[in-house]
Design a protein that fits this description.
alpha+beta, Non-ribosomal Peptide Synthetase Peptidyl Carrier Protein, Chain A, Thiol Ester Dehydrase, Chain A, 9 helices
């Protein structure tokens, strides 16, 4: 390590990990004294085990690399933050929130920590750092859509592909009248969900901090949209949205929705417009188009080429 680990620091470390197993504590002390990376799995697993809820559906001893922290071990978002803080303090590293979104399984935890300690950062080959996972709580903090009009339960962004899921619960407010005594998830809402996935990608990947999610992302147009199968309560909608082209202020996607392997819907061209004040500028373009483009067209939306339908995402 860069400097000797003093006895005072040893005692502080033991105090910080006092609720962990003796094996975890001793491995942490040895690591801080020697820097031996072979101690790391014992430390990380020990910290995770200390934070696992008593009612966890699986014991850590039975878990493998594919075991998911939230789904399989019952670790919630707040507990995950506690685990990260403890690992940071114990190993002397820093983990950013963006990096956390690429960590879902125990295997990803191990490989990430190994890269971090070796100085490799997010990923040694530059690919895994592009994978970001989002649960519903995280999506709520990013998207302007909020419950009860949020139709993403989880999402994963991998470069220019977004995978997302939504469970049709049956208590959605609009199902009472669509249709009476025979609830059917509206086709329009299915396409809304695809748009929300696209909006998530824009806000996380290209929009920048100067874009207000509530006003600066709008639906521009949708072409070649097809609906193949009705979705009903209990159906898990699995969405795949792929970025086709981005030329600010436009992002063009194609998307598909499946349920139990069966096609539900597809759209070949879903266009979103984004940028500071884009909603107002798009409205100006619509008005100009209605007047035969007699008025000047805002330069930032000239690329819309008249394909604008001002609908907030």
């Amino acid at each position: 390590m860069s400097s000797p680990f003093t006895e005072e620091q040893v005692q502080e470390l033991r105090t910080a990990l006092k609720r962990c197993s003796p094996a975890t504590i001793e491995a942490a002390v040895r690591f801080r004294q020697t820097g031996d990376a072979e101690e790391v799995p014992t430390i990380v697993y020990g910290i995770i085990e200390r934070h696992m809820p008593p009612e966890s559906p699986m014991k850590l001893a039975d878990a493998g690399d594919a075991t998911e922290l939230i789904k399989d071990l019952g670790v919630d978002s707040l507990t995950m933050l506690e685990i990260v803080l403890s690992i940071e303090e114990t190993l002397g590293i820093s983990i950013e929130n963006e990096e956390l979104r690429s960590i879902r399984t125990l295997g990803e935890v191990k490989s990430f920590i190994a890269r971090k300690l070796s100085g490799g950062g997010g990923d040694s080959n530059g690919s895994e750092e592009l994978i970001r996972h989002y649960n519903r709580e995280e999506i709520v903090t990013i998207l302007p859509q909020q419950p009860p009009f949020l139709f993403l339960d989880e999402a994963m962004i991998e470069d220019k592909i977004i995978h997302a899921k939504y469970l049709v619960r049956g208590d959605e407010y609009f199902l009472e009248g669509h249709f009476k005594d025979h609830p059917v998830f509206p086709a329009s809402i299915v396409f809304e969900a695809l748009g929300q996935a696209g909006c998530l990608w824009i806000l996380e990947s290209v929009a920048g901090k100067d874009v207000d999610a509530k006003t600066d992302v709008v639906f521009a147009s949708m072409e070649e949209a097809h609906f193949y199968r009705r979705a009903k309560p209990g159906d898990l909608l699995e969405m795949t949205v792929e970025v086709d082209r981005v030329r600010e202020p436009l992002a063009i996607f194609k998307g598909a929705v499946k349920c139990n392997g069966h096609r539900v819907a597809e759209v070949s061209r879903l266009m979103l417009a984004f940028g500071a004040g884009i909603a107002e500028q798009a409205e100006q373009l619509v008005e100009a188009r209605e007047r035969g483009f007699e008025a000047p067209v805002p330069a930032s939306v000239a690329g819309l080429n008249g394909h604008v339908e001002v609908v907030k995402v």
